[in-house]
């Protein structure tokens, strides 16, 4: 028997670093196999620049040459193995300082699938590659490009008839002795040999057992494994990795490279779960007047983001505990695709408007915002954001501007608003405003300026302008902490003293940022932070008994789809179809008095009317 050490060393030369027990590894493009590579518009280079670790060329021996083709009828003058593969690889190898790739850690094998007449083809191949010195000689050069023979290969007991510069592609149903096994670089088999699975969803348990068994068998032999005839899709790639294969075949090297390259931004596993609040439902759906309303807006939060947060929190969530659920249609007045300005304006004023407009109607006329409407009845309001407080969503509740980026003009509009508490970042739009006296004017309006949450915590009464450092609203992954929950708790404490009631809008601003960045860990951790905010609101609603909590989004961002998830592992993997907003309906969750009114499907601007109706104002 060949000692395990020698087998592991051999595998290292092949270009794979396998652990003896073959623990499941996260694959990269360098563990990808460019199937029928010669059919690419640019043979070799498409796969090479995608970082493929294995590249396949089919060959025929004709008139003393090795031609690259899948069928005899496809043989064409000039399309030789030497011209399309060997010479270009030699040039690249030299350019990389005698490495297959610029990254010396990356390996490369050239799989040569002999279609017929292996005796003449192998003799010609061995003769040819000797001219390249140590480029293909793995015995002399640990950085060599491995030559692996597949297709019409000699019988195993004839492997040693051929120079050791070449290795072979084995089959799992064949028995090899130690000497023969030492000549095998990998073992492959047709996926259809074990299953009819078409790459969608997951294989059936019996088929999965067959697939994992053959991979385990090959790993016990100390060899890497590859299935051929596999569906070329992200779902297939992740399922094959889960099964434990070592080479993923593809006809789309660039797509597979992107799949692996973007992996850190497309999958997330939570280190631990947070425990949601369990509502008591005593006032939930009660047909009585709501004294207070808390509107929570997860900017960019669609159903996929909610499901991602749920999966990553081991199947636990505050949102899934809510019973009254509807859907909001988010179209703007001038487009079926809304931005945050039009989306928030619809909820803040009850009117659809154009994208980028802040609480102006589609003709540019000023609209009455919900804090202003409620102020006439003695109801006080607070606006909170885990981001820029002059950004579109919070701005729609206190400003009126024709362009959402007019940050300083938006800040100045607070003078004309009935908002009592404003909490968020982008301090400079207020303190360095073009109106140099803005802060003094706001002070004259009764606002106490606070620059930190600790200062805000000391407030006892009165209007509060809490302008935090931008670092205080950095993303959760960078350490923002409980900024949202702390802000909501204090705002509730101050406004609950008002006998007429209150309205609070709190925004989870950065779920949207994660969607725009196509960054799933970013989006998921922001959604989970927002979900914890939901728990705080529900807790108060139960204590108070007169508070309606509404949770929704202004739109969905990123076109997120989920490819894999595990409640047991707290893991989720996804993919984004855009870096912009989509017009997918967003959910509306409601809890407390009047919650039933939020069930059904309706335009987003009717949320305003439902809120006003919930107060039963007279």
From TrEMBL:
Family designation:
Belongs to the alkaline phosphatase family.
Keyword set includes Signal: yes
The cofactor required is: Zn(2+); Mg(2+)
This one is known as Alkaline phosphatase
Q: From what organism does this protein derive?
A: Pedobacter soli
Tell me which stretches of the chain form a coiled coil.
none
The annotation note on the cofactor reads: Binds 2 Zn(2+) ions. Binds 1 Mg(2+) ion.
Check the record and name the InterPro entries matching this protein: AIM6_PI-PLC-like_dom (IPR039559), Alkaline_phosphatase (IPR001952), Alkaline_phosphatase_core_sf (IPR017850), PLC-like_Pdiesterase_TIM-brl (IPR017946)
Q: Which UniProt keywords apply?
A: Magnesium, Metal-binding, Phosphoprotein, Signal, Zinc
Q: Which domain of life is it from?
A: Bacteria
Question: Any idea which GO molecular function terms this record carries?
Answer: alkaline phosphatase activity; metal ion binding; phosphoric diester hydrolase activity
> Binding positions for Mg(2+)?
299, 393, 507
One Gene Ontology term from the biological process aspect of the record: lipid metabolic process
Active site positions, chain numbering: 340
The residues forming the signal peptide are 1-23
Keyword field contains Aminoacyl-tRNA synthetase: no
Residues annotated as binding Zn(2+): 299, 391, 512, 516, 554-555
Any Pfam family: Alk_phosphatase
């Amino acid at each position: 028997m060949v000692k395990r050490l020698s087998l592991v060393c051999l595998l290292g030369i092949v270009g794979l670093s396998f652990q003896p027990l073959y623990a499941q590894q996260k694959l990269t493009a360098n563990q990808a196999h460019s199937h029928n590579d010669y059919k690419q518009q640019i043979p070799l280079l498409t796969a090479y620049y995608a970082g493929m670790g294995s590249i396949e060329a089919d060959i025929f021996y004709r008139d003393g040459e090795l031609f690259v083709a899948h069928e005899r009828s496809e043989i064409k003058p000039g399309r030789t193995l030497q011209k399309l593969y060997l010479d270009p690889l030699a040039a690249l190898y030299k350019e990389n300082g005698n490495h297959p790739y610029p990254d010396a850690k990356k390996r490369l094998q050239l799989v040569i699938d002999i279609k017929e007449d292996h005796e003449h083809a192998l003799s010609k191949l061995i003769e040819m590659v000797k001219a390249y010195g140590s480029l293909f000689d793995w015995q002399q050069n640990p950085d060599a490009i491995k030559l692996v023979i597949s297709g019409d290969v000699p019988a195993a007991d004839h492997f040693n008839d051929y120079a050791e510069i070449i290795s072979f592609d084995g089959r799992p149903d064949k028995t090899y002795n130690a000497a023969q096994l030492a000549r095998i670089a990998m073992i492959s088999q047709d996926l259809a040999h074990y299953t009819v699975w078409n790459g969608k969803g997951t294989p059936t348990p019996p088929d999965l057992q067959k697939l994992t068994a053959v991979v385990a068998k090959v790993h016990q032999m100390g060899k890497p494994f590859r299935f051929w005839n596999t569906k070329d899709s992200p779902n297939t790639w992740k399922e094959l990795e889960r099964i434990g294969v070592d080479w993923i075949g593809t006809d789309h090297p660039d797509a597979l490279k992107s799949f692996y390259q973007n992996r850190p931004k497309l999958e997330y596993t939570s280190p631990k779960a947070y425990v949601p609040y369990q509502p008591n439902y005593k006032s939930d759906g009660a047909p009585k007047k709501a004294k207070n309303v808390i509107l929570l807006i997860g900017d960019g939060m669609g159903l996929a983001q909610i499901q991602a947060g749920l999966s990553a929190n081991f199947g636990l969530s505050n949102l899934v505990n809510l019973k009254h659920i509807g859907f909001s249609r988010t179209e703007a007045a001038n487009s079926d695709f809304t931005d945050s300005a039009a989306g928030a304006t619809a909820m803040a004023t009850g009117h659809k408007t154009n994208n980028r407009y802040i609480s102006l109607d589609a003709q540019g006329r000023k609209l009455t915002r919900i804090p202003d409407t409620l102020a006439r009845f003695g109801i006080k309001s607070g606006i909170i954001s885990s981001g820029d407080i002059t950004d579109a969503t919070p701005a729609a509740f206190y400003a009126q501007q024709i362009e959402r980026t007019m940050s300083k003009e938006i800040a100045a509009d607070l003078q004309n608003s009935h908002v009592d508490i404003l909490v968020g970042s982008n301090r400079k739009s207020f303190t360095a405003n073009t109106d140099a006296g803005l802060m003094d004017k706001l002070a004259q309006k009764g606002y106490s300026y606070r620059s930190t949450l600790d200062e805000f915590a000391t407030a006892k009464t009165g209007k509060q302008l809490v302008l935090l450092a931008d670092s205080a609203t950095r993303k959760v992954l960078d350490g923002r902490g409980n900024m949202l929950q702390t802000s909501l708790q204090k705002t509730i404490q101050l406004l609950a003293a008002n006998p007429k009631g209150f309205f609070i809008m709190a925004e989870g601003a950065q779920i949207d940022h994660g969607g725009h960045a196509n960054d799933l860990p970013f989006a998921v951790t922001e959604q989970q932070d927002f979900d914890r905010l939901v728990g705080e609101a529900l807790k108060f609603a139960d204590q108070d008994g007169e508070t309606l909590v509404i949770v929704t989004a202004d739109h969905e961002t990123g076109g997120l789809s989920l490819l894999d998830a595990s409640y047991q592992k707290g893991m989720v993997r996804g993919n984004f179809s855009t870096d912009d907003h989509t017009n997918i309906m967003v959910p509306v969750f409601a809890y407390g008095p009047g919650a039933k009114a939020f069930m059904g499907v309706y335009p987003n601007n009717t949320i305003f009317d439902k809120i006003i109706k919930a107060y039963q104002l007279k």
